[in-house]
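Handover notes (outgoing to incoming on-call)

Open items:
1. TBC1 domain family member 4: sequence verified, structure written out, both below. Nothing else pending on this one.
2. Nothing else urgent.
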Amino acid sequence: MTTVESKCRITFWAIKKSWPDAFSRFALWYMGWSSLDRRTTLPMLPWLVAEIRRKSEKNESGPAQAREVQLYLSPPLIRCVPANSNNPSVFIFEHKAQFISRFIHNSHDLSYFAYLIRSQPDNPESEMACHVFKACDPNQVPEVISSIRQVSKAALKEESKPRQDSDESFYNSQKFEVLYCGKVTVNHKKAPSTLIDDCIDKFRQHEIERKRLRLLNGQRSSTEAPVEFIMGDDPLSSSLCKVDELEPNLIEEELSEKGNGNLDLTSYSSTGSLLGVFPECILEDSDFGEQHASEPNNVQPSDADKNRTMLFQVGRFEVNLISPDTKSVVLEKNFKEISSCSQGVKQTDHFGFICRDVVESGPAQYVCYVFQCASEYLVDEVMLTLKQAFTTAAALQSSKNQIELCEACPMHDLHKLCERIEGLYPPRAKLTIQKYLSELSDNEQVNIFERVQKMKPASDHEENELVILHLRQLCETKQKSHVHIGEVPQQNASGSTMTSDNSSAGRNKLDALKNKARSSLTSSLENIISRVCVCFFDILVCICCFADHMDGRELLPLSPRALNQDQNPQVSPLTPEQGFGGEKGRRSPADYRALWKKAIHQQILLIRMEKENQRLEASRDELHIRKMKLDYQEVCQCSKEVQALWDRKLSSPCRTKVQWDKEEIHGAVCQGVPKSRRGEVWLLLSQQYRLHHRLPQRQQPPETPYQDLLKQLTAQQHAILVDLGRTFPTHQYFSTQLGAGQLSLYNLLKAYSLLDTEVGYCQGISFVAGLLLLHMSEEQAFDTLKFLMYDLGIRRQYRPDMISLQIQMYQLSRLLHDYHRNLYTHLEEHEICPSLYAAPWFLTLFASQFQLGFVARIFDLLFVQGTEVIFKVALCLLSSHEGEILECDGFESIVDYLKSTIPTLTHSQMEETITKATEMDISKQLHAYEVEYHVLQDELSDAPPPSEDSDRLDKLEKANAQLKKQNMDLLEELQAARLKIQTLEGSMESFLSRESKMKHLIRSLEQEKASYQKTIERMHSSLPSDTMAEVEMTQLKSSTNRKAKETACKKP
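TBC1 domain family member 4 C-alpha cells:
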C-alpha cells in the first residue's frame, strides 16, 4: 500500500558554504511522500511521483492541512521546522543529506521535483521513501536541488576524511612483493597439483636455451632459434618491455617471414589505458606431445633481464599486480574471474592462479600466472590471505540485499512497459499501454477499466497515469505470490500444490526461455555479421597496401562507399580517370609513387609530432611532480647573491675532484640553500665530504647497482609496506596509496634493506629516504642515503642492538645537565628520560614531527657538520622552551608539551633555532660524554654479579642509589669549585690590573709633586724679603680665622 501525506507549504533555508552569512530561501509546496517497493526501477519513478502529486492535489488522503514550515540545510542534517514555531528543536522531519540517493525532476511539469532517501540508512533491507515538492517558480528547482547536493557533498567530504587510527588500509587490501615468473595457457580452469612445478621447469628450459643462443650469436636473441615466436599482448610483459626496445633483428625477421606463416604479427599500437600492452615475444613450446588437459600448453616466461618484481595486492573483490618500476597497475583480475590458486609442490616458494583471459579474436581461454616469493612462509601467507579474501567476498556478496527477479516477474513486465512508453506522446503511450492490457485476463482488464473510468480522467496523460497506478498495484499484489523460474512452489496445508500457480509458472518459464532464445539468436547473428564486416574490411586494407604491385588501373584503394553504389545510385564510384583529387585523366605510376611518398612523409611528420607532444607532456608532468614535491614553506630564504653563489659552485667543472675550503662551504650553507636546487647542493656536499674524509675499505658499502637491487626480493617487505602509509601522510606526493611517491619510497627502502643486510630496515629510515626523494631522483636519493648511513655513520643508530642510540640519549642528558641544570632537574624529578621524547628526533632526523622546511635546513647543516647538528638542534629546542616546560607540573603535561607543542614552531622560531645551532660548538663535549659512557659501561660489566639474596640485592640497590647521589653531589661540588676558581682567578686578574694602574698613577703624581716643589722654590728665590713676611702673616691670619669658624660650628 502507498502512504501519502497531505500537502503543506514549506520554506527552504540553505546555508551556502561558499559565502558565509549568506542564506537562500525557497518557498515550496510539500506534496507528500510514499514508500517504494524494492523492485521499483528508474522508469517507474515518474509515474510514482505523478501518483503522489495527483493524490495530494485532489485530497484523496483526507482534508488538506497546508502549513508553512522552514527546512534548514546544514551539513549534515536536513531539518523541517514549522514556520510559526520559534523552537528549532521541534521539527516535522529530519534526516542526513548524504543519504539522499537520487533526485527526480518531472519533465511534464518543471515545477515538480522529488528525491529518494532510505528510511533506515544503516539497514540495506529498509524501504526507500520518495518525497515530492512543487516550486512556485520552475526556475527555482535547479537552485534548490543544487543547494541540497552541496550540503550532501559537504557531509560526504567530512565523512571521507582519513582518521588517525587507520594508518594502513590492510582491512581492505594486503600487499606482498612477488617476482613475476611468467604465464601459461591451460585448457581447464582446474589444474593438477604439479602445474606450478611444470611451469617452472619450462621457464628454466627456456632461459637455458636463450642463454645458449645468446652465447652462440653474441646477441640478445637469435634469428635462427629452433622455436617459434608469436607476437602477443601481455600486460605483464608490456611493463617490462617498451616498443622502442624491440630488437632490430626481430623486426627484420617479422618482415621477412610475414608470408610463410611462421610468425603471427599483431598491431604495435597501444590501447591507451593503464593496462595498455606492448607486444613481446612469447615462447610457444611444441615438444609437449601427449599432454594432460590442464598441463601448460602455451608457455610465456618473463624477461629475466628486466625488473620483474611486483606488488601483489589482494583487495576485497579483486587482485591487482602493481609495478613499482612503471608506477602503474599491470594486471587486474576480479575474484569471479579466478578459478583456482595453487602452490608449488617442489617449488614451495612459488604460487600461481588460473583465471579467465578474454582474447579479442577467438573464445576466452584460461591462463595461469606464476609468481615467486622470498620464502615459503610468505607463500603460505599469500595463500591464506587469498582464501580468506575469497571467503569474505563470497559472504559479503551473499549478504547483500539482492532483489530476486526473473523474466516472468510481474514487476519486471511493468518495468519493461515503463521503458517502452518513456518519452512517448500520451496518445502513443496510451496505445502501448492498451496493448499490454490486452495480455491480462478479462477480470483484470475489467477491474482496471472500471477504476479508471470512475476517476474520470480529463486527458490521455492523466488516463495513462491512472492506468499505470492500478497496474503497479496489481503487479505488486501478483509479485507476492509469484514463483520465480527454477524455484519449487510452496505447498499448502493439505500438502497439495496450487495447480493454477504451477501452470502459470510453467507457462511463464516457457515464455522466458523463448525470449531468451530469441535474444540469443539475434545477438549471435549480429556478432557473425560484424565479424564478416571486419574481415571484409581487413581484405580491403590488404588490397590497398599491396596496390603498388598491381596494374595502374587497379592501384586505387577500394572505398567503403564504392561497395554501396548499388544501394545508393547517387554515389558514383571513384574511377582512375577522376584520380585522388578529382582531376580528369589517368595518372602515371610516377604520380602514384609521388602520392604514396607524400603520404609516407606526412605519416612520418605525424609520428614526429606525436613524439614531440609526448615529450612535452612528459616534461609538463615532470614539472608538476617537482612542484608537488617541493610544496613546503622554506626557512631562511636565500638572497639573489646566495643563489648566484650556489649556481657558480654547482656549475664548477672540478667540483667532484677538487677539495674546497671547509669554512667557505660552511659559510655558504649558513647563508641558505635554494629550495629548487637543494638536491644538487646535497649531492655536491656529499662529494666534498668524501674528498675530505675517505672511508676505510672495510667500512665502505657494497658496490651493487641500484637497478640490480630492485630485481631482488626482500624479506623486509611487510615492515616497509606498513610504513609507507605512515611516512609523510599529509604530503601530496606520498598521500596516495601505492601512488608514484609511495612506490618510489618502497623501491628506495627495499634497495637499501638488500644492500645493508646488518641494518635491513628500521622504522625511521623511511622519513629520511622520503625527504631525499622530495629533492632528487631515486638513484640519486639511494646514493645520498648510502652517504648518510655509511660516511656520516647514521646507520649505527639503526642497528639491532641500538647501542649508538643509547649513547646519543646519554649525551643529550649530559648536555642538559651541564648547560640547563634546572630543566634537567625538572625532567629527572618527573622521571622523563630523553628516550621518551628525543628518540624520534634522532631516528627520523626530526622529519616525523617537524615541518619540512625546518627539516630541510637541518639536512643542509647535516651534510656539512655531521650528526653533531642533531644534538645542537635538540638542545636549542629545549632551551628555547625551558620556561614553558618548567611550568608544566606533571608527567603527562610535560610529555605532551614535548611531543605536541615544540614541533609547532613559528617561522621566526625556526630561523632562530637554525641560527643558534650554526653558532654552537659541542664537539669536544660529545666526545667526552661518549668516552664517559663507555667507562661507565665497562665498570658495570666488571662489577660482580648480584647475589640471589633479596636483602643483599636491596642493600646493593640502596648503596648504588646513595653512590649515585654522592657522585652527583660531588659533580655539583666540583662544578661549583671550578666556577669559584674561575671567579677568583678573574678577580685576581682584575686586582693585579688595578694595582698596576695605581702604581702608574702614584708614580705620575710624585713626578708632578716634585715639579711643583721646584717651581715654588724658584718663586721664593725671586721674591724680596718683606714681601715674604707679609705673605707669611696673611697665611697665619687665614688659618686662625678658619679654626675659629670650625669651633663655632661645633657648638650647639
